[in-house]
TrEMBL record, chain A:
InterPro entries: 4Fe4S_Fe-S-bd, DPD_II, FAD/NAD-bd_sf, FAD/NAD-binding_dom, Glut_synth_ssu1, Glutamate_Synthase, Helical_ferredxn. This is Glutamate synthase, small subunit. It comes from Methylophilales bacterium HTCC2181. NCBIfam families: GOGAT_sm_gam. It holds the Pfam family Fer4_20. One of its GO terms (biological process) is glutamate biosynthetic process. SUPFAM superfamilies: alpha-helical ferredoxin (SSF46548), Nucleotide-binding domain (SSF51971). Residues 37-68 form the 4Fe-4S ferredoxin-type domain. GO terms for molecular function: iron-sulfur cluster binding; oxidoreductase activity, acting on the CH-NH2 group of donors, NAD or NADP as acceptor. PROSITE patterns: 4FE4S_FER_2. The keyword Kinase does not apply. Keywords: Amino-acid biosynthesis, Glutamate biosynthesis, Oxidoreductase.
Length: 475, 513
């Protein structure tokens, strides 16, 4: 934008990574951020296109062309201000967002898109380094009390927005640490947890009260919450994992990904865990080809697994999408994550049929190839095979929020079992019960961190409007 | 307007002359005037359009929807029985067959599609057409960017097949066999019913759908051609006499009388030359025409290289407009008894937009002399207000007084003003130019030079020519006292031009080193 020919002059350069052989030795982040000079030239690649699709490709509507230009001018201070104006936590998204903005980049039509994510990463790292991220406590308090159930990105975003306009916000977390899936779902090597801690410190200075070990519906009474607070936001995520009810599922060694991943994060944080599920020296099979599966692969490799396989039910996607058909939307294409680079065999169109065990422990896995015809899955005859498996991790997505909490609040659910609430209109984010709002995965089903932040922000505005009659918060 | 259209028609008699009007209230009256001024073609441009290079203010704030302007134009032209003479085109975000049919029903013969076919070819509306950075290789000459262009003619053809198909379907539903039957049938239009919105309450389309009550003899679409009167032009005779030059490049010399009803003389002749030899024209003085009398407007407009017009008499407005290589000499008639340098010899807007060529005027010119000149040279013995306004190139020598606002917006070329009284600085607009002394050749500082020649050489040559062609007494006086006279000249130097010359010079030095 600052340089009209930037996209012709400079190639896309991604932030450098620590080589796989090095990084699997520890749980540290391995994506290094761009140097100032690199960030400048990457920012110069932005074309100031007439209609910046990135702006709407981004769920939080980051004002991307503006901060690209500011980075080109090396005006980092203003860049973080613009970035923070739409995104509460760029340090999260700059690390773990799949960057739908880059898919929507106009340059992506016939060239490599602008490295938006790496620029975002550089901006927020620079801002923390220079102490530009400081608490913004409200000038006046409203005296309104809000309880937020769940401290994931949706809950945190809503909490920060509401605290900054003067409400007394209490965030209730069922686990022992704040962050939800950011804390216990995403491995440290993708995002170190100190990022959450310093946000929590900032937000506490802004007036947010965080309470851990508060399992609403178990040791906290929903009715009491509704009684004690002026409004309640349900932002508890979609944590009900999809199961694989095949023979042998009950065997020891067949686990949900979310039984496997959190423990490692706790150990990195310094906790002592008895009976940790480890992959050390084992033949690991990860079932499910998504991001959670990838995280299982990366963690297994760091444990020192003997072998790691990953199966996906759907067929292998094409290497390249047909841009004229999908741009500016998120394309279905072959993606190799950083965890795959660290060592993993992948296979597609594979359905697991049963697990075979010995002494109650899983030893083998029986699978078959499948074909997809007219949207229906068919087993390929005589394609059954078995393979060694000492640890099977189920990472096949999440069905919906845990139903018990929604039932205990007595709110309506949509057809997919999520808390029912609209995102547009006068009563956006309100559930069927007065004073009770829902945002994030609990409302929309499993999704991205960046969508959670969007919902948290928008829900905060709805709550503010509900409590005060009007709101100065952005939508 | 009529003169402009006549000039253009002379410049290319086989071309249609089109006038594009912004759709807005009152455009009908303007269009009627344009039709009377003999435009072949009128375009009504709606407010939705605009290229990627046009300023946002124009895109957002200019004009009204084309439907409104078109309806008004059609009604006015039909009422004044002018509609049959012109082709009426409408444009401004035409995208569908429905747009075309609505346009036809409101009175258009033709339809301008621009954005939609560009998008079909791959345009992504970056609005960067003017920066040579079009990332899909459309609005650029950069070979690297053009590699990215992946549009195909077939895509555009296919797009228009769809448009035509939709038009055909709508015509069939209206029971129309021929497209011409559709034109001006606004009675077939109606407001869409059943839209329940408060904003619709104030809408009344009856005046857009109105059809003037004229008899069946009054055409509602284009049926005839404008009569431009080219068959009566003096050029027909000149062309006939100059045929050996035009066809065989032989030199011809002849005399011809002229009167002020002979407008735009020399332009059709230039067209004949340009048709055969392009912008190169013929060698200088191949066709030498001596004319006698008072010329009409646009004497020697667009005069091509190789033609010399030597007029004893006087010029009118627009002498040498768009001059492109020809020579024009105008001096008073032989029986003239006044003092030549005190009398007006040519009118206003002389040498407007000239690109190359030479002219010598033995007397004073009117206002706006050499406006937008970009490369021709001219000698004159005085000018009115606004001389050399917006000039971007060429050389002008004024051997007498100038009017106010000289050199306003002048960004290129050089003007030399003979200023023995030292009053010129008061009439010059200094916003974009500096005034300098004209140095003798041996003392002119080294560095970049206008036309790569010293000021003295350029100026002296112009004055020598002026004397040679016009017998100017001022010229001979100046030449006879050259060493003192040169000190009385002021050089008008545009700041931007000087900067460009210096940069060019610095670059050449660097290259040599």
């Amino acid at each position: 934008m600052g340089k009209v020919t930037g996209f012709m002059d400079f190639p896309r350069v991604a932030a450098e990574n620590v080589p796989p052989a090095e990084r699997v030795k520890n749980y540290k982040e391995f994506v290094l951020h761009l140097s100032d000079e690199e960030a400048k030239t990457q920012g110069a690649r932005c074309m100031d296109c007439g209609i910046p699709f990135c702006n709407n490709g981004c769920p939080v509507n980051n004002i991307i062309p503006d901060w690209n230009d500011l980075v080109f001018q090396q005006n980092w201070k203003q860049a973080i201000e613009v970035l923070h104006s739409t995104n509460n936590f760029p340090e999260f998204t700059g690390r773990i967002c799949p960057a739908p903005c880059e898919a929507a980049c106009t340059l992506n039509i016939n060239d490599d898109p602008v490295g938006i994510k790496s620029i975002e990463h550089a901006i927020i790292d620079k801002a923390w380094e220079n102490n530009w991220v400081i608490p913004q406590p409200p000038k006046n308090k409203t005296g309104k009390k809000i309880a937020i159930v769940g401290s994931g990105p949706a809950g945190m975003a809503a909490a920060q927005q509401l605290a900054r306009v003067g409400h007394d916000v209490v965030v209730l977390e069922k686990n022992d640490r704040i962050g939800g899936l950011l804390r216990y779902g995403i491995p440290d090597f993708k995002m170190e947890k100190s990022h959450i801690d310093r946000r929590v410190t900032q937000m506490e200075a802004e007036g947010v009260v965080f309470k851990t070990n508060q399992n609403v519906g178990e040791n906290v009474d929903p009715e009491q919450l509704i009684h004690d607070y002026d409004s309640v936001i349900l932002a508890g995520g979609a944590e009900w994992p999809r199961d694989l009810p095949v023979p042998g599922r009950e065997l020891d060694g067949v686990h949900f990904a979310m039984d496997f991943l959190p423990n490692q994060n706790k150990i990195v944080a310094g906790d002592v865990i008895k009976d940790q599920i480890t992959a050390t020296g084992k033949n690991v099979v990860v079932i499910g080809g998504g991001d959670t599966g990838s995280d299982c692969v990366g963690t297994s490799n760091r444990h020192g697994a003997a072998s790691v396989y990953q199966f996906e039910l759907m067929p292998q996607p094409p290497e390249k999408e047909i841009k004229s058909l999908v741009w500016p939307y998120w394309p279905l294409k072959m993606r190799t994550s950083s965890s795959h680079e660290e060592g993993c065999e992948r296979d597609w169109s594979v359905a697991t049929k049963s697990f075979i065990g010995e002494n109650g422990k899983v030893k083998e896995l029986v699978a078959a190839r499948v074909e997809w015809k007219d949207g229906k899955m068919q087993e390929v005859p005589n394609s059954e095979f078995t393979m060694k498996a000492d640890l099977v991790l189920l990472a096949m997505g999440f069905i919906s929020p845990q139903q018990t909490i929604l039932d205990k609040f007595g709110i309506d659910k949509d057809a997919r079992g999520n808390a029912k609430a609209e995102t547009e209109g006068e009563n956006s984010y309100t559930t069927s019960r007065s004073k009770v709002f829902a945002a994030g995965d609990m409302r929309r089903g499993q999704s991205l961190v960046v969508w959670a932040i969007r919902e948290g922000r928008q829900c905060a505005r709805s709550v503010d409007e509900f409590l005060m009659g009007s709101s100065s918060l952005p939508r | 307007m009529a003169q402009l259209i006549h000039d253009l028609k002379n410049a290319n008699p086989s071309a249609s002359i089109s006038v594009k009007l912004v759709s807005e209230t009152g455009v009908g009256t303007v269009a009627a005037g344009v039709a009377k001024a003999k435009s072949d073609h009128i375009v009504i441009a709606g407010h939705d359009g605009g290229t990627g290079a046009s300023p946002l203010s124009s895109i957002k704030h200019a004009g009204t929807p084309w439907e409104i302007g078109l309806a008004e134009t059609q009604q006015t032209l039909v009422l004044n029985q002018l509609r049959g003479r012109v082709i009426l085109q409408v444009d401004g975000q035409m995208k569908t067959g429905r747009d075309v049919v609505v346009g036809a029903l409101l009175g258009a013969d033709e339809f301008g599609f621009a954005t939609a076919p560009l998008v079909v070819e791959g345009c992504i509306m970056m609005r960067k057409c003017h920066l040579n950075t079009c990332p899909v290789g459309i609005a650029t000459q950069d070979p690297e960017l053009r590699k990215r262009f992946n549009g195909q003619p077939e895509h555009v053809v296919n797009f228009f097949f769809f448009i035509a198909e939709e038009i055909r379907e709508i015509m069939a539903s209206l029971g129309m066999k021929k497209f011409n039957d559709l034109i001006g049938r606004s009675d077939l239009l109606d407001m869409q019913q059943g839209i329940d919105h408060w904003k619709i309450q104030g809408l009344d389309f009856s005046r857009i759908f109105y059809q003037p009550d004229m008899g069946p003899d009054v055409s509602r679409y284009n049926v005839e051609k404008q009569y431009h009167g080219l068959d009566k032009a003096l050029d027909n005779e000149i062309i006939k006499k100059a045929m050996p030059s035009i066809e065989k490049k032989e030199s011809t010399t002849f005399d011809i009388p002229i009167t002020n009803t002979n407008r735009t003389v020399g332009t059709m002749l230039s067209h004949e030359i340009a048709k055969r030899y392009g912008n190169d024209g013929l060698p200088d003085n191949t066709i030498s025409v001596k004319l006698e009398g008072t010329a009409g407007q646009s004497f020697g407009a667009f005069l091509a290289k190789g033609i010399t017009f030597n007029l004893h008499g006087e010029g009118n407005d627009y002498v040498g407009k768009g001059l492109c290589g020809g020579h024009i000499i105008i001096r008073p008639p032989q029986h003239f008894k006044g003092i030549e340098e005190k009398n007006i010899i040519v009118g206003n807007t002389v040498m407007y937009g000239a690109t190359s060529g030479e002219s010598y005027f033995r007397g004073i010119a009117g206002e706006r002399f050499c406006v937008r000149n970009s490369g021709a040279s001219a000698v004159v013995e005085g000018v009115g207000n606004h001389g050399c306004e917006y000039m971007t190139g060429g050389t002008v020598a004024v051997l007498g007084e100038t009017g106010q606002n000289f050199a306003a917006g002048m960004s290129g070329g050089v003007a030399y003003i003979y200023d023995p009284e030292g009053t010129f600085s008061q009439s010059c607009n200094p916003s974009m130019v500096t005034l300098e002394k004209v140095a003798k050749e041996n003392v002119q500082p080294k560095g970049a030079k206008h036309l790569n020649l010293s000021d003295e050489t350029i100026l002296k040559q112009l004055i020598v020519n002026h004397h040679k062609y016009t017998d100017s007494s001022i010229a001979i006086d100046i030449l006879n006292n050259w060493d003192t006279a040169i000190g009385n000249f002021v050089k008008v130097m545009p700041i931007e031009y000087k900067r460009a010359l210096n940069e060019l010079h610095a670059a050449t030095i660097k290259e040599v080193a």
